[in-house]
């Protein structure tokens, strides 16, 4: 079955904007000349329309008809001159006014062709056209950053999904090559480990996609209960210091996404303390700025540059151990869930090592 795309509406071809502006200027000049001619005719009405009177010295006093007869050719020539002058001046002025728009249009055409690196960088005073060009530059910069992050994300996702698949194939081929010496239990355990890794990556990608779609339905959720459930689910032998208010602290949001946010924060704190153990601080705080969910932990020292990039997809910090099952998407999911709830995510390196994460939700009032 063939489908036909919706036909684009046929637009009537019109003169260029520069020509229309020039015609507009000429029209304004013509109207102004006609108004002046009308004022002249009104003034001439007060001149008597009598026969010529011979004055002393041989002169004469013109009548109204004489003045009108003498003025009409001059008025016509003046109007024609105003139209020509209006067209010429309008064409020049419109060209100067529209030149910045040509630069903006050029940047838009290059962006449509796939080149997002071009910028307008319009010089001149801070007027409407300059602000328009600056806004276009900012839009192109954000688009370029978004597309670059999307390409990087796609490449990283492909790598993360291809690596365990290739490893599974290698394990199977090695087992096939040595039927007598292969250990079936070891092969199955290795395949199960690699399959779990792929499944974890796919699950994290689905969570990230769901968080990027935003929150469909909001309902009051107890953030204390969300944090406690995340701590129970994480388990482990870490020392966890919990500081929460005695009563419920409610925020508006999607409970499943909030569970994933808190779960990823607690799991991230646990992973960065393997295998030696460490301390995790978990708290829910209320204040004038909103409701804060805080999860801090010990771990390897982190520099500010590394901390700034931890919320990007597939970025792993120091202190990870092999086989922890991480996909590099934990904090990326946290950042997406926070954005979907209108919350602020703040990452900071602890002085003694480790990470301090704060998610500030708007107060429900």
TrEMBL record:
Domain Histidine kinase: 156-365
GO cellular component: plasma membrane
EC number: 2.7.13.3
Subcellular location: Cell membrane
Keywords carried by this UniProt record: Kinase, Membrane, Phosphoprotein, Transferase, Transmembrane, Transmembrane helix, Two-component regulatory system
Enzyme kind, highest EC tier: transferase
A Pfam family the protein falls into: HAMP
Gene3D superfamilies with a match to the protein in the record: 1.10.287.130, 6.10.340.10, Histidine kinase-like ATPase, C-terminal domain
Alphabetized CDD domains for the sequence: HisKA
InterPro entries with a match to the protein in the record: HAMP_dom (IPR003660), HATPase_C_sf (IPR036890), HATPase_dom (IPR003594), His_kinase_dom (IPR005467), HisK_dim/P_dom (IPR003661), HisK_dim/P_sf (IPR036097), Sig_transdc_His_kin-like_C (IPR004358), TCS_sensor_his_kinase (IPR050428)
Gene Ontology terms for molecular function: phosphorelay sensor kinase activity
TM stretches of this protein: 21-47, 67-93
Name this protein carries in UniProt: histidine kinase
Organism whose genome encodes this protein: Pseudokineococcus lusitanus
Organism taxonomic ancestry: Bacteria, Bacillati, Actinomycetota, Actinomycetes, Kineosporiales
């Amino acid at each position: 079955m063939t489908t036909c795309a919706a036909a684009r509406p046929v637009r009537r071809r019109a003169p260029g904007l520069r020509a229309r502006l020039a015609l507009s200027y000429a029209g304004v000049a013509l109207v102004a000349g006609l108004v002046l001619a009308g004022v002249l005719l009104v003034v001439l009405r007060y001149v008597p329309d009598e026969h010529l009177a011979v004055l002393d010295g041989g002169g004469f006093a013109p009548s109204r008809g004489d003045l009108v007869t003498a003025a009409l050719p001059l008025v016509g020539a003046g109007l024609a001159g105003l139209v020509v002058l209006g067209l010429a001046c309008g064409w020049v002025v419109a060209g100067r006014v529209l030149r910045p728009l040509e630069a903006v249009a050029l940047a838009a055409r290059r962006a449509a062709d796939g080149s997002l690196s071009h910028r307008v960088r319009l010089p001149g005073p801070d007027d409407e056209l300059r602000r328009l060009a600056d806004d276009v530059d900012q839009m192109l910069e954000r688009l370029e950053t978004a597309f670059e992050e999307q390409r990087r994300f796609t490449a990283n996702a492909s790598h993360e999904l291809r690596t365990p698949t290739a490893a599974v194939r290698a394990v199977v081929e090695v087992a096939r090559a040595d039927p007598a010496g292969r250990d079936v239990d070891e092969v199955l355990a290795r395949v199960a480990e690699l399959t779990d890794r792929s499944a974890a990556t796919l699950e994290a990608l689905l969570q990230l996609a769901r968080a990027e779609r935003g929150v469909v339905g909001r309902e009051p959720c107890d953030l204390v209960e969300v944090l406690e459930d995340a701590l129970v689910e994480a388990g482990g032998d870490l020392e966890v210091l919990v500081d929460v208010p005695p009563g419920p602290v409610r925020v508006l949001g999607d409970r499943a996404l909030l569970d994933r946010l808190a779960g990823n924060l607690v799991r991230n704190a646990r992973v960065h303390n393997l295998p030696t153990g460490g301390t995790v601080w978990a708290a829910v705080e209320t204040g004038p700025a909103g409701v804060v969910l805080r999860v801090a932990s010990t771990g390897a020292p982190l520099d500010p540059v590394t901390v700034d990039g931890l919320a990007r997809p597939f970025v792993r910090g120091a202190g990870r151990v092999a086989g922890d099952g991480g996909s590099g998407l934990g904090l990326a999911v946290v950042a997406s869930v926070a954005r979907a709830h209108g919350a602020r995510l703040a990452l900071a390196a602890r002085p003694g090592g480790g990470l301090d994460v704060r998610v500030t939700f708007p107060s429900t009032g």
